[in-house]
Design goal:
With about 700 residues, the protein is of the alpha/beta class. α21 links the parallel β20 and β21. About 40% of the residues lie in helices and about 20% in strands. α11 crosses α12 and α26 packs across α27. It has 4 domains: about 100 residues, Nucleic acid-binding proteins (OB fold (Dihydrolipoamide Acetyltransferase, E2P)), CATH 2.40.50.140; about 110 residues, no CATH class; about 190 residues, P-loop containing nucleotide triphosphate hydrolases (Rossmann fold), CATH 3.40.50; about 180 residues, P-loop containing nucleotide triphosphate hydrolases (Rossmann fold, 3-Layer(aba) Sandwich), CATH 3.40.50. The structure holds adenosine-5'-diphosphate (ADP) and magnesium ion.
């Protein structure tokens, strides 16, 4: 239920004067939304300072300036020639250019011998200074008609800045002043304006004051952080009020599994599992994320959790993003759980009819205790027996709201989320604030470091020969290409490369790319897994999580085109077995500064967290693998890199607000609710469903 006070914010753009059926779609596309709220959060990217007054001689090319000068000549448009107005002052001449202007207006505005004041972007035309379509022309007596400062927005064709400012003004006029939701001390300390004042200051500033603009932006960024923390805090509280089966730790089963392992679990794996065991031992739903770099051994942690559940007579569903991964995980978990007699089955789209029914019957009869499938398994209307635990692997394809929806379904199973995306702490707070997080930072001791080398593509023949030798030794390789076919990548296209490699390598070469249908893709990956193929040529569709321990080489062509985190994830496909592995980054010279830095970082470290920090610094959060796909919330104002401290403060603040007023029905609570609904509507709607 929406608070009626907020209705104006949700009004459709078409209710603004001047926004008709033609303008509305243009405006909506520009601002990425359809409501007044979306319009108001289309913030200026800069402001023009029109106080910049200069004589003609002193005008700087590329700057917005304001000049007072005398009209020297008016040459109206003729044919394809634009109108030219020549102005002069004692220092020189300035030309104004108008295309398609109204002659009457021109003659009225530019009377030869009279003074005018013009303001606009100065450019250079054949050595002379000119302004094309000045933003303003006023007579010098009417100096005050010229705004001292004007916001500049990201613009689009078919919409003028003037029109946009007019729509903005109408929306600002129509919204109420909301009761303050931010703590007064915090407001004071930061010198923050109120919510509406902040919007007014950014959209309709009276004075040019960059510091004041930043203060206003920060206030709105804080609103956004607070809203999100509130929504997640409430979700947390709601969850704490729900009941889940408390599952005791199964010490015997745990020991049997560990004793049968071909390796010793790391300390970090056992610590992560301890967190999980404690969570599941409580009668409230667990929501925990295990964050660990590729190859850190997250599957074992999940398997131990599934064993705890099975010992209690419960069922675990294990969700992977693709069918291949679902099958691979079924195998891996099945092997871990075999010593305690727990059976694991894959259930994917491929299992149809009788086979499918047989699996489900076995689950109902208690013969199978763990099901491994894709997310569709859980979302489908399959009549699954009560689940005690849901594990979501490689969760980055899953947004917070999706996750919350999933957990709002039916009973309240415990939920374990596994992520290979190492992200810096503040970002983890912003992205996964609804989860408790356990981090696995340690790698299994037997892990072979992956040797990484950057090689110019002029030496590709040597690289192919090295791959061929590895195949002769019975190893396997991945070969990553930046594009599917030659139109986009010439020789480095996956299709072409496969043909070339097939001639060089003494083994079948499989191919997988995004334009293949799902089952074909799965089949190609399976070929490498089973060893039927020695090399898999792939675009980046090769899935995160693909585990082929025999693969010892990964070659990445045009490595300079990939992001740092993506390269790291790709590299994680090798180094999973006993043998030494290598990652060869083929690049095309010359490298850009950033490209060089990326490849250097990769050569220097294999620590995913270090790489994530470096990536974060190099390019901001948007490029961390997968986050952009869906996990990363899109903030309107908040910048998770620069506003990190705001997120921390908001988190503390949200906690204390909820502590004092868990249902948000006090005066401040009601005010905060509005912030929450304005800034975090998607999460808020899931929260209020459960309210
Ligand atoms: P990820 O964290 O990327 O999901 P996996 O769970 O797939 O990693 O583990 C990668 C490989 O390492 C698997 O073959 C797994 O059996 C193995 N493994 C897991 N834990 C250890 C360990 N402590 N020591 C050695 N190998 C391990
Ligand atoms: Mg995994």
């Amino acid at each position: 239920m929406r608070d009626p006070v907020l209705y104006p914010f949700y009004a459709d753009l078409s209710s603004l004067p001047g926004v008709g059926p033609k303008v509305r779609p243009v405006l909506a596309r520009l601002i990425g939304g359809e409501t007044w709220l979306d319009l108001l959060f289309h913030l200026p990217t800069s402001w023009i300072d029109r106080r910049n007054r200069a004589s003609i001689e002193a005008l700087q090319i590329g700057e917005v300036s304001t000049v007072t000068a005398t009209v020297d000549q008016l040459q109206l448009s003729r044919g394809k020639w634009p109108t030219r107005v020549r102005l002069r002052d004692e220092t020189g001449f300035l030309t104004l250019i108008y295309f398609h202007a109204n002659n009457q207006w021109l003659e009225r505005t530019f009377k030869v011998g009279e003074e005018v004041m013009v303001s606009g972007l100065v450019d250079d035309y054949q050595g002379g200074r000119q302004i094309t379509h000045p933003d303003h022309v006023v007579s010098p007596e009417k100096d005050d008609e010229l705004p001292e400062v004007e916001p500049v927005y990201p613009m689009t064709a078919n919409l003028t800045a003037k029109a946009l400012r007019k729509f903005m003004a109408a929306a600002l006029d129509g919204i109420p002043d909301l009761d303050e939701w931010i703590d007064p001390h915090l407001m004071k300390r930061n010198n923050w304006p109120g919510f509406k004042q902040a919007l007014l200051r950014l959209h309709q500033p009276k004075v040019y004051d960059p510091e004041a603009f930043e203060t206003a932006r920060q206030r709105l960024a804080y609103d956004e952080a607070l809203a999100r923390e509130m929504a997640m805090g409430q979700a947390r509280l709601a969850r704490e009020r729900r009941f889940s089966r408390a599952i005791p730790r199964a010490v015997g089963a745990e020991r049997n599994i560990i004793e049968a392992l071909p390796f010793k679990p790391t300390r970090a794996q056992m610590d992560a599992y301890s967190d999980v065991a404690i969570d599941m031992g409580r009668p409230v739903p667990m929501r925990r994320m295990i964050q660990g770099d590729v190859g850190s051994g997250k599957t074992l942690v999940a398997a131990l959790a599934a064993a705890q559940v099975a010992a209690d007579g419960g069922i675990t569903a294990f969700m992977s993003p693709t069918e291949v991964l679902a099958r691979q995980q079924a195998d891996a978990i099945g092997r871990f759980l075999a010593p305690i007699g727990v059976r694991v089955a894959a259930l994917t789209g491929r299992d149809k009819g009788a086979a499918r029914e047989a699996i489900l019957n076995d689950v109902r009869a208690g013969k199978i205790q763990v099901l491994s499938g894709t997310q569709a398994l859980y979302q489908s209307d399959v009549d699954l027996p009560e689940l005690s635990l849901v594990v979501i692997d490689e969760q980055h394809r899953f947004g917070v709201a999706d996750r919350m929806k999933l957990s709002a379904k039916g009973s309240s199973p415990h939920m374990l989320v596994m992520s290979a995306t190492p992200i810096p702490r503040t970002m983890a707070l912003a992205v996964h604030g609804d989860l408790d997080i356990s981090v696995i930072r340690e790698k299994p001791a037997n892990r072979q470091e992956v040797t990484t080398a950057a090689v110019p593509d002029t030496r590709i023949d040597e690289v192919m020969a090295a791959v061929a030798r590895a195949i002769d030794r019975g190893e396997r390789a991945f070969w990553i290409c930046p594009a599917v076919d030659s139109e986009d990548a010439g020789d480095a296209s996956a299709i072409q490369r496969r043909e070339v490699l097939a001639e060089i390598v003494q083994a079948p070469v499989a191919l997988v790319h995004g334009r293949m249908p799902g089952p074909e893709r799965d089949a190609a990956l399976d070929k490498l897994r089973t060893g039927e193929a020695g090399v898999l040529v792939a675009t980046t569709v090769i899935e995160v999580g693909v585990d082929v321990p025999e693969a010892t080489i990964i070659v990445i062509e045009h490595a300079e085109k990939f992001g740092l985190a993506q390269l790291h994830q790709l590299r994680g496909r090798v180094g999973r077995g006993e043998k030494a592995s290598s990652c060869l980054l083929l690049y095309q010279a010359p490298l850009t500064e950033a490209g060089k830095e990326r490849l250097d970082t990769l050569r220097k470290t294999t620590d995913g967290f270090e790489i994530a920090e470096a990536d974060f610094k190099l390019r901001g959060p948007g490029d961390l693998l997968g986050l952009r796909q869906s996990g990363l919330p899109t903030f309107r104002v908040l910048n998770i890199t620069e506003d990190a401290n705001l997120i921390e403060t908001a988190r503390t603040d949200a906690k204390s607000i909820l502590m004092a007023d868990p249902h948000l029905d006090g005066a401040r609570g009601l005010a905060v609710r509005r912030a929450r609904d304005l800034f975090a509507p998607r999460i808020a709607s899931v929260v209020s469903e459960s309210e």
